[in-house]
Amino acid sequence: MEASTSCKESREEIVFFDLETTIPNRAGKRFRVLEFGAIVICPRKLVELESYTTLIRPGDLSDVALRSSRCDGITRETVAKAPSFEEVADKIFGILHGRIWAGHNIQRFDCVRIKEAFAEIGRPAPEPVGMIDSLGVLANKFGKRAGNMKMATLAAYFGLGQQKHRSLDDVRMNLEVLKHCATVLFLV
């Protein structure tokens, strides 16, 4: 509890987050958020303070595949009874706004999708106070030691198991990959 108190007083937590989305298969189709997952981390102790995950039902269920082509298992049936983005927007805003955002390839993908989702419901998007995109950090500091720098490749390189393509599992894996990379860089 002590770590929680010292971090929350100054609001300097880091929120690792990840989205799972549809994959547009036709021109004119957009990415639709299907799942949001986040863990809030105290940067002093690297302990998880809170977590949140939710499936999200898009406005048009036909945007979601009947059968998942990836290992995530997210299908039309899976999200049919999930809340809409509008129903979880306050919670997502509260988790993200005013914190340091962290994740793998979030600048080019996840941040764009969050802004689109909030714009679609006519609300201002949350704003970060800083950003840690592990893809950029690791590409610059860790190099190509682990191959193509995808999260699945990095996790395999460090023996952390397979990427599940479920948002909460992926953010926890992202934190572990960063810890392992930092250890390697410190020792080299």
TrEMBL record:
UniProt keyword Metal-binding, yes or no: yes
Coiled-coil residues: none
Known cofactor(s): Mg(2+)
Domain of life of the source: Eukaryota
Gene3D superfamilies on file: Ribonuclease H-like superfamily/Ribonuclease H
Pfam families for this protein: RNase_T (PF00929)
Keywords: Exonuclease, Hydrolase, Magnesium, Metal-binding, Nuclease
Key word Protease present: no
GO molecular function, one term: nucleic acid binding
Record-annotated Exonuclease domain positions: 13-187
Record protein name field: Exonuclease domain-containing protein
Organism: Ficus carica
Organism classification: Eukaryota, Viridiplantae, Streptophyta, Embryophyta, Tracheophyta
